[in-house]
Specification:
This protein is an all-alpha fold. It is 46% helix and 0% strand.
């Protein structure tokens, strides 16, 4: 799957690593409502282009997952500032 890496010279590998790090940092630095979103731009950093086959839970299960995710942020990042804004996008 990653055979393309073997064909790259040093400069191309450095460019690839830089591109991947930029994408990972953008995902890591997501905040506020952006934490909840699906990130196809991160997947687009991979060389194989495909439409991901996602499955979406029914609303009640989905919302319970959102609540658990938010609770996990309270546990893992208790000192994080609160982003008290409505989603407008």
């Amino acid at each position: 799957m990653d055979d393309d890496l073997e064909q790259m010279d040093r400069e191309a590998l450095i460019a690839e690593v830089t591109k991947l790090r930029t994408g990972i940092r953008a995902h890591r630095d997501a905040s506020g409502h952006d934490l909840c979103w699906h990130h196809p731009d991160l997947w687009d950093l991979l060389p194989e282009k495909m439409e991901p086959a996602i499955a979406v839970p029914p609303w009640p299960k989905f919302m319970r997952g959102c609540i658990r995710y938010r609770q996990s942020l309270d546990e893992q990042a208790p000192g994080a500032p609160v982003h008290d804004k409505e989603f407008d996008g």
